[in-house]
């Protein structure tokens, strides 16, 4: 743990807030880094945990590689189950040794829930906060109440989630927005620009989508509205993707600098994105999109059982089908290419998406009337103050 491990005294302002923070994938790493940066501006912060490049840039020395936790779907989990179980035990022991004031677990829902349960079993008495609410509104609403004994609070990144968690008797939940709100763009539909491909960041997502995206690039890359193919990615995936696209039939530019994304989004004619947090980033940058996801067999069964609900965050937040979704049990590149070309042909449809994204941006900025947007650092500091007062 960096920094002295002294008891917290918020009233005096001289002591250190001891934080353990865990992010299991790049989107969580970004959220966690935003929280740490906010806290570092306001208090003396000593933090340890698990994260990726964005947390490391703020001084984190990870307990183990974040990539160990970046799994999606039952097949990926089964392959890594022994490692995941060991990481839960290893993390719980590290937290017990460090005795942080507050533990913040960012997304990675299954791992976070199991870790919180293990900490309770071991008698950990500090504050536990879950950052990013589980999608109980989409499936398994009974899970909300089961989280109540585990977490003091849930910090939600979608504005409707606090009301849902309250209705389902989940833990107290506050809406805190998303770091992507700081990267909003004001733009109209462009007549010609790059086609942006976002095939995911987890290994399983890349395995299921890259070959399909190659075919989409070949079929849609020659459209008159398309001026080149760009794949924004993480620095850790840059070399892999350069190798993957080397033999694609059309030139592809791989960009791993986050600072370059704003200009890519500003110029983009359209994006094809694997469902995930990136769809929210695209919407806030007002980039028209087609959203897709290739399910593993277990995910496909659950998806059908729940009536094929919307999967993209823009559609979920807005409560209507603002962007086309193509959720597939078996990858169909031809269907993806058709959706992309249809949207490329229709500038008005792209402009309609952009206007819907303006509505989404306003909602994300303010939150709902009963649950207005709060600063995530305020919520963490409130728990720290409460813990310090209870210790007196």
Identify the notable features of this structure and list them briefly.
six-stranded parallel β-sheet; 392 residues; 16% strand; disordered N terminus; 15 helices; 12 strands; 2 domains; Rossmann fold
Helix content: 40-55%
Instruction: Supply the CATH class of the largest domain.
Output: Alpha Beta
Instruction: Tell me the name of the CATH homologous superfamily of the largest domain.
Output: Glycogen Phosphorylase B
| SSE pattern, N- to C-terminal | EHEHHEHEHEHEEHEHEHEHEHHEHHH
Second-tier CATH architecture of the largest domain: 3-Layer(aba) Sandwich
End-to-end separation in angstroms reads 25 Å
- Per DSSP, the total helix count is 15
CATH topology of the largest domain: Rossmann fold
Percent strand equals 15-25%
Rg from C-alpha positions? 21 Å
Assembly level: single chain
Mean pLDDT: 90
Net shape: globular
Describe it:
The protein is of the alpha/beta class and 392 residues long. The protein folds into two domains: 16-177 and 368-391, 3-Layer(aba) Sandwich (Rossmann fold), CATH 3.40.50.2000; 182-365, Rossmann fold (3-Layer(aba) Sandwich), CATH 3.40.50. The chain is built from 15 helices and twelve strands. The protein has helices at residues 26-40, 53-56, 74-98, 109-121, 143-147, 161-167, 203-220, 238-245, 261-267, 277-284, 297-305, 313-318, 333-345, 347-366, 376-391; strands at residues 16-23, 44-50, 102-106, 127-131, 153-156, 173-175, 193-198, 226-232, 252-255, 270-274, 289-294, 325-328. The strands form two sheets. The protein has a six-stranded parallel β-sheet, sandwiched between helices. Strands 9-8-7-10-11-12 form a six-stranded parallel β-sheet, sandwiched between helices. Strand 8, helix 8 and strand 9 (252-255) form a beta-alpha-beta unit. Helix 3 packs parallel to helix 4 and helix 7 (203-220) crosses helix 13 (333-345). The longest helix is centred in the N-terminal third of the chain and has 25 residues, at 74-98. It is globular. 44% of the residues are buried. Residues 1-13 have low confidence and may be disordered.
């Amino acid at each position: 743990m960096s920094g002295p491990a002294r008891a917290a005294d918020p009233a005096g302002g001289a002591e250190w807030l001891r934080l353990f923070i865990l992010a299991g994938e790049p989107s969580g790493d970004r959220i966690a880094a935003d929280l740490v940066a906010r806290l570092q501006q306001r208090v003396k912060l000593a933090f340890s945990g698990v994260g990726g490049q964005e947390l490391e840039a703020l001084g984190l020395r990870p307990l183990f590689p974040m990539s160990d936790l970046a799994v999606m779907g039952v097949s990926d989990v089964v392959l890594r189950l022994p490692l995941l179980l060991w990481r839960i035990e290893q993390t719980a022991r590290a937290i017990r040794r460090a005795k942080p004031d507050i533990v913040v677990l960012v997304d990675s829902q299954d791992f976070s829930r199991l870790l919180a349960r293990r900490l309770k079993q071991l008698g950990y008495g500090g504050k536990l906060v879950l950052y990013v609410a589980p999608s109980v509104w989409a499936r398994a609403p009974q899970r909300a109440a089961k989280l109540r004994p585990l977490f003091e609070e849930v910090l939600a990144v979608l504005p409707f989630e606090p009301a849902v968690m309250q209705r389902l008797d989940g833990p107290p939940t506050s809406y805190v927005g998303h770091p992507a709100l700081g990267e909003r763009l004001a733009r109209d539909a462009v007549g010609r620009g790059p086609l942006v491909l976002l095939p995911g960041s987890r290994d399983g997502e890349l395995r299921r989508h890259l070959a399909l995206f190659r075919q989409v690039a070949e079929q849609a890359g020659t459209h008159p509205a398309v001026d080149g193919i760009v794949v924004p990615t993480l620095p850790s995936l840059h070399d892999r993707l350069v190798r993957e696209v080397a033999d694609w039939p059309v030139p592809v530019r791989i960009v791993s600098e986050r600072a370059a994304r704003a200009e890519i989004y500003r110029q983009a004619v359209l994006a094809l994105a694997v469902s995930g947090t990136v769809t929210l980033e695209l919407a806030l940058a007002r980039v028209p999109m087609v959203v897709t996801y290739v399910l593993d067999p277990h995910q496909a069964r659950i998806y059908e059982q729940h009536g094929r609900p919307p999967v993209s965050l823009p559609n979920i937040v807005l409560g209507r089908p603002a962007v086309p979704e193509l959720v597939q049990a078996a990858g169909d590149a031809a269907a993806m290419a058709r959706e992309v070309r249809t949207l490329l042909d229709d500038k008005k449809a792209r402009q309609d998406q952009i206007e819907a994204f303006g509505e989404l941006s306003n909602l994300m900025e303010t939150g709902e009337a009963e649950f207005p947007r709060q600063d995530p650092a305020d919520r963490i500091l409130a728990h720290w103050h409460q813990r310090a007062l209870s210790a007196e």
